[in-house]
Amino acid sequence: MAPTPPHELLTPDSPLASATTIGAKTRTMLHQAGMKVVRDLLEHYPRRYEDRRHFGSFPLDETAEAVCLHGLVTDCSAKRAGYRRHVEVTVNDAQGHPLAGPIHCRWFNMPWMIKAFAVGQEIVLFGRVKEKKSQLFLDHPDYEIIEPHENRISLHMGRLVPVYPLGDGLVQKPLREAMHAVLEQLDDESVPPVLPEVAVSTTTETISHRAAAWRAIHFPATRDEAAAARRWLALEEFFALQLNVLMRRRAAGDRPGVIHAGSGALLNRWRDGLPFPLTAAQNRSIAEVHGDLAASRPMNRLLQGDVGSGKTFVALAAALLATESGHQTAIMAPTQILAEQHYIHFQKHLTPLGIRVGLRTATRKEQSTTPLLTSSDQPHIMIGTHALLFDESVFDNLGLVVIDEQHKFGVAQRARLVSHGRTPDVLVMTATPIPRTLALTLYGDLDVSVLDELPAGRGKITTAVRQGVDLNQVAAFVRQQLDKGRQAYVVYPLVDESETLAVKSATAEHKMWQGRLPGVEVGLLHGRLKPEAKEAVMTAFRSGQIRVLISTTVIEVGVDVPNATLMLVFNAERFGLAQLHQLRGRVGRGAHHSYCVLVCSDGATDGMTRLQVLERTRDGFEIAEADLRLRGPGELLGEKQSGLRGLRLGDLVADAPLIIEARALAEAVLQDDPELTMTRHQPLRALLHQPEAAAVASAN
Ligand code: ADP
Ligand code: MG
User: Fold this and answer.
1) Torsions phi, psi for 70 (to 5 deg)
2) Nearest protein CA to atom 10 of ligand 1, as residue
């Protein structure tokens, strides 16, 4: 496609205003959708393609999948049935197939749609055809009216036609025309090469340059060409992500570190005193951490372990090693409840060894009083929530930072702790089992240890997804567990009824459960309680005084009460699979048989099907993969991860091979040119974000 001579050539950074072949009205439309420069438009990729060269005849029955049809409008009218109004457009096969009956297209509650149609129009439809009372229907189909002059061969007919995602006021045909116009004016030479030359042969033979990929993804000659272009552009996206990850990893490794490990004598003393052996996976991870602490390069390690795999002991072992070398440890927990729990746990294990443990949350500052191991009276190990980050006075000699349940913390806080010229060793622990592709993408700058085994002697967990439950039966089941001396959690998604969705609130349900379980201490926990109140409730539950805890998801992360054997979740369809897996991880921590009952609201049938994965498996990886597929990475990680916003085409699940290829390409480039100073690598510098700066800015 040669650029048309009379017009100025465009570069990816040219303002769309200088695209002279786009009409003023369309330019306004693009502008209002937030597209400012040529690149913004070209990176708005097709959602799918329609082959408008050959249309099949109209189907005679329902279709299993969406189909693309070409027809003529023979009738249009506004109809009503009871309260429901709809616009109905009758379309006949344009080829006039003798057997094909008409298809009735319906749009409900959109009376203005009637204006879009007229008898005699030629129309292209896309949707799944349904059959009802031997008539065929297409409800809310994608459609395009084909103007007489556009017929046979144009941008919109007689070819493989790109169909774009709309929204923000975008309209399909003008958008497609603008795309075409901009590509006509684009100067291919001005599009900087991103992928190294080696990628050209490995990924695809038909594409060799981003400009070619843009042309092919928008107006492909064949579906194969479109697929090749998509692969090319997705590879570019992953390559950019990997460059960032690897640069960050190098920057971290470059900082001069300090040795933060003692001989291990203290660690061994503690380990020998335990009433049970550590698992092989725990011992392996501790050895890996020991190796990092003993090296002068700063540690940047991710400890990944499914719920209940015993991550806390690995943190404790790391803290022991640091203490022994005369350094302090900061342990950061995502919630106050979890900080308190770690504090209790660490004190129990470490006070006998003469180690001082401190607690610092937004409301509490205290520390154990034990015989001093060093002359300073600062604690050796300080546990806290993010409040720790804002008070540096407690650390004279910080050597190790452990961040528990990292996905709730985010990259921002991590960057902040490691800033200020300090180079503590960092151990990040996560209970979200991250699929390998995602780990490579997000945490590629970390070394990884995996706890892939649960401690022995754990009771079984039976999981059941239910709908339309009888509360009397449920209460009887709760009672049964209590009679055996066990405790129970009952979780509701939202705090109070004023929140827009009519979800049962934990506060109201607390009263209901008190009524149903006379003589039983029923506690209530939610995020809006004062910190002191939260702590009192947790203490009472831990000690067994509160037998049933009604809660929102504040108990999701980390809470460890081995006597609890029943997890009852209402409105379970509102939760992600990974989150439910975390909730389920609150039971099955002792030797008793545990139960996790996921109750879906009436009518949430899709939700039920989704949750059944949890009945089948307890493998956190399998569940995380399913969640990633169903809900995308943002949900899985609990927050929007900045790096992933760059992925428009790349799919973390389906594109695993591309991710691995991108990783290898990025490694090769940085091996040749670690600082990206070579002339041919200049375009790559534009792909780097500055994570530290951006992260700290967003934390403020
Ligand atoms: P998580 O990995 O979910 O943070 P925790 O560290 O809270 O898991 O450990 C879960 C429970 O298992 C705790 O009650 C802990 O004391 C216990 N535990 C940890 N390691 C072992 C082990 N090796 N043997 C027996 N119990 C263990
Ligand atoms: Mg934990």
Assistant:
1) -120, 120
2) 308
